[in-house]
């Protein structure tokens, strides 16, 4: 049985009722890897407004609002966003159309604990931004990949073909815990079960956690007409950490749930007979927000991360080999600025007291701007190291907004957020 939370940024309803899960801010923040500092690359962050470069569990709990529909969820969820690289080397952000986050109850006969909620203060990562090849025998590598809807399906690399139903970056987190450490820098506090999903937990990590799974959807089809203007017309997209292959996709989670509330929701509502609707789970309450307005915050860092950028923010040149990733570029560090929490339909890239919306140039403007470019595209040969065996497609479908694909069809899930 599965406990799921799903969302559509478009606000469209799905066949099974789902709730919105919106981006709260996009910036170079990572309170797990780079606490109190400017992070190495941009993240798109969902969850509690208390998230910041140095946020803690207590600060998340003090969030003024949450972008999740379950008002008890003040957690922070983040991944690197996707950019389109122009032939002159500049970058423009790809539209994030929806976010789906599943809490799935996977168990095994060998489990020595029941399904356990994340403890307060718990943090974990999945994936590595420095990977540039696929190891088919690695459990973590098989838990991370890309789903091309209406195209080639699921692959561990960013697909080159068009995805008319949208492209989804997908991250499955470890669901076995050592039962004592809230976080260890080398991620030794968590582990994947054998065979990734319903396998047994290792004896060193015998506490079975509810499984966390991200699916972030991107509108890549709108860029088809502009592929001839891309650095690589075959596969023009790169993640914010400079990865054009997709193996460096990763996700971070900083728990902001009160453990007793999430545990009660798991115990009470995670059963097949319970309809997968937030309103039917008495443990959880829906977040109230103004119509068409969502929990947002202005960035903590004075840096442009949207619009057309000369380079990816931070030290992130596009690299096809892990050995080419630089350790440092000796770039100036942007300043921290006061952040403001607000309700709005868009998130600004920097705080402007008179302007609470993001201004992104239209595709027409991009085409006009880049039509006259004379610099030739880079001709570096692209080699996907696919390994011998590609991971199997997911055991469940990921729901999206009305304009970007099929509906969620989960009979035993509770949609929480």
Q: If helices are DSSP runs of H or I spanning 4 or more residues, what is the number of helices?
A: 3
Structural class: mainly beta
Relative strand content:
15-25%
CA-atom Rg in angstroms: 20 Å
Number of strands: 20
Strands in their spatial order, largest beta sheet? 10-9-11-15-7-1-20
- Helical content stands at under 10%
| Sheet with most strands | 7 strands, mixed
Spans with pLDDT under 50 lasting ≥5 residues? 1-20, 350-417
Q: Kindly, what is the distance between the CA atoms of the first and last residues, rounded to a whole number of angstroms?
A: 17 Å
Identify the overall geometry.
Answer: globular
Determine the oligomeric state from the structure.
single chain
Element order, helices and strands? EEEHEEEEEEEEEEEEEEHEEHE
Would you tell me the overall average pLDDT?
78
Can you put this structure into words, describing what you see?
This protein is mostly beta strands. It has three helices and 20 strands. The chain has a seven-stranded mixed beta sheet, with no helix packed on it. It starts with a strand and ends with a strand.
């Amino acid at each position: 049985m599965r406990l799921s939370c799903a969302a559509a940024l478009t606000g469209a309803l799905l066949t099974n009722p789902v709730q919105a899960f919106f981006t709260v801010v996009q910036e170079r923040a990572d309170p797990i890897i780079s606490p109190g500092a400017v992070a190495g690359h941009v993240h798109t962050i969902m969850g509690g407004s208390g998230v910041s470069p140095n946020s803690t569990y207590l600060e998340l709990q003090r969030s003024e609002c949450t972008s999740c529909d379950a008002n008890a969820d003040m957690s922070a969820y983040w991944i690197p966003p996707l950019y389109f690289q122009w032939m002159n080397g500049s970058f423009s952000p790809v539209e994030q159309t929806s976010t789906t986050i599943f809490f799935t109850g996977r168990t095994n006969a060998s489990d020595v604990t029941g399904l356990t909620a994340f403890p307060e203060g718990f943090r974990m990562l999945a994936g590595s931004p420095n990977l540039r090849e696929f190891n088919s025998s690695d459990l973590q590598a098989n838990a991370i990949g890309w789903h091309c809807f209406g195209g080639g399906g699921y692959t561990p690399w960013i697909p080159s073909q068009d995805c008319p139903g949208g492209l989804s970056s997908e991250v499955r987190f470890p669901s076995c815990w050592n039962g004592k450490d809230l976080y260890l820098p080398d991620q030794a506090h968590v582990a994947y079960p054998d065979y990734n999903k319903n396998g047994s937990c290792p004896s060193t990590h015998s506490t079975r956690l509810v499984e966390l799974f991200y699916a972030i959807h991107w509108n890549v089809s709108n860029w088809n007409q502009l592929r001839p203007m891309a650095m690589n017309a075959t596969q023009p997209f790169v993640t914010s950490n400079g990865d054009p292959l997709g193996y460096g996709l990763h996700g971070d989670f900083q728990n902001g749930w009160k453990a007793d509330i999430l545990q009660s929701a798991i115990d009470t509502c995670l059963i097949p007979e319970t309809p997968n609707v937030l309103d039917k789970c008495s443990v959880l309450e829906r977040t109230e927000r103004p119509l068409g307005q969502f929990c947002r915050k202005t960035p903590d860092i004075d840096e442009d991360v949207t619009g057309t950028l000369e380079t990816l923010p931070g030290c992130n040149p596009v690299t096809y080999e892990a050995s080419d990733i630089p350790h440092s570029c000796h770039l100036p560090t942007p300043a921290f600025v006061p952040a403001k929490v607000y309700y709005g339909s868009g998130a600004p890239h920097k705080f402007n007291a008179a302007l609470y919306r993001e201004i992104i140039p239209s595709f027409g403007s991009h085409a006009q701007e880049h039509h006259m470019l004379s610099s030739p595209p880079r001709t570096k040969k692209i080699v996907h190291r696919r390994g011998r065996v590609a991971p199997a497609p997911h055991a469940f479908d990921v729901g999206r907004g009305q304009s970007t694909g099929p509906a969620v069809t989960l009979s035993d899930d509770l949609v929480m957020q």
